[in-house]
Design goal:
Layout (H helix, E strand, L loop, with lengths): L5 H7 L7 E3 H6 L4 H7 L7 E4 L2 E3 L7 H12 L4 E2 L1 H7 L10 E6 L10 E6 L6 E3 L2 E3 L2 H9 L5 H13 L5 H10 L6 H10 L3 H14 L7 E7 L5 E9 L4 E4 L14 H6 L3 E4 L2 H6 L1 H17 L6 E3 L7
Parallel strand pairs: 5-6, 11-12
Antiparallel strand pairs: 1-3, 2-3, 4-5, 7-8, 9-10, 9-13, 10-11
Helix pairs in contact: 5-6, 6-7, 6-8, 7-9, 7-10
Length: 316
């Protein structure tokens, strides 16, 4: 077994890439090809992850290490897209089996093990996280949507970045029109069925706002009924323990109509915060303070005899 001194090992460590390095870097540091091969053999202290990419450890690679390995294997200009890109930007999704990676059209390398490579002449301007280049939300979504064959999963996938406030449905349509048209028919139809997703976007903005507010999580899209079970109004977010409602979609506007009757809700004793879509986008701090104060006031009074129907958790 080729031996390296402690100083040499320290010099080779790469904390910024979770100890994932290329064989080119190892050779440049003075490690011979024979030493690399020796240390990557079964029972050795290193592990070869992909052609030309080594993990300076013999354990199973973490997801971050796989992402760094995919970026190293793809080379200069490569961009991680699809689900991993959405995860990097805050969307809670299970990691896929393969890291979907875009590479320049001229790059002559192939998909390997946990890396799916896609050559493209239209590389996006990337967003960087943890020293890895990721595709922006609309591009990442469309790249994976073109490969999705299950309608319900496709619907959820297209709605998620809008719900999280990362892009709009118009951004998705523009990306779809700009890119490769292969595999886009079902995506185009689903986007048409989903419409503008304006309410989905607003709920995503509201969800993000509430993450920074010291309140328990609400339930969403609730019909509030009186003690006889008759509907008296609809709220976008609901804190049942104190009978606090928040209207920020159609319900937050003056012309919301009878089904969003804020007067009936107030008459029944519901503490109600009403926010217009523009206010939700532009006055986050003020709304956060208003919700916190409203919750405190609602908790001080006797809870009215109202109940909620159709409440759902904060998911798409």
């Amino acid at each position: 077994m080729a031996r390296l001194t402690s100083a040499e090992l320290a010099a080779l460590s790469a904390p910024e890439t979770d100890d994932v390095v290329t064989t080119t870097r190892l050779r440049d540091a003075g490690v011979t090809p024979h030493a690399i091969a020796s240390r990557c053999r079964a029972g050795g202290p290193w592990r070869r992850l992909l052609p030309g990419v080594v993990l300076l450890d013999d354990g199973e690679p973490s997801r971050r290490q796989k992402l760094h390995a995919a970026a190293s294997y793809g080379g200069e200009g490569s961009v991680v897209t699809g689900i991993d890109a959405l995860r990097a930007q805050g969307i809670r999704l299970a990691p896929p089996h393969q890291v979907h990676t875009l590479v320049p059209l001229h790059r002559r390398i192939h998909s390997q093990d946990f890396v799916h490579l896609e050559r493209t002449s239209r590389l996006p301007e990337p967003l960087r996280h943890d020293d890895i280049a990721f595709a922006p939300p609309a591009r990442a979504t469309i790249d994976i949507a073109r490969r999705e064959t299950v309608p319900e999963r496709l619907r959820r996938l297209l709605a998620l970045p809008v719900y999280y406030g990362l892009c709009t449905s118009d951004d998705l349509r523009a990306e779809l029109d700009s890119g490769n048209q292969r595999g886009t028919a079902s995506v185009r139809e689903m986007l048409r069925n989903l419409g503008s997703m304006g309410e989905t976007y607003l709920q995503g903005v509201a969800r993000e706002l509430l993450e920074a507010v010291p309140l328990p999580p609400p339930v969403w899209n609730v019909t509030v009924c009186d003690v006889q079970g008759r509907p008296i109004g609809v709220v976008d977010a609901w804190w049942d323990e104190v009978a606090l409602g928040w209207q920020f979609g159609a319900g937050g506007q003056e012309n919301a109509g009878p089904k969003m009757n804020h007067l009936a809700l107030a008459a029944a004793g519901v503490v109600l915060v009403r926010t217009s879509p523009d206010q939700l986008r532009e006055h986050v701090r003020r709304i956060a303070q208003e919700l916190t104060s409203a919750f405190a006031n609602a908790a001080k009074r006797r809870r009215p005899k109202v109940r909620a129907l159709g409440s759902v958790p904060a998911t798409v």
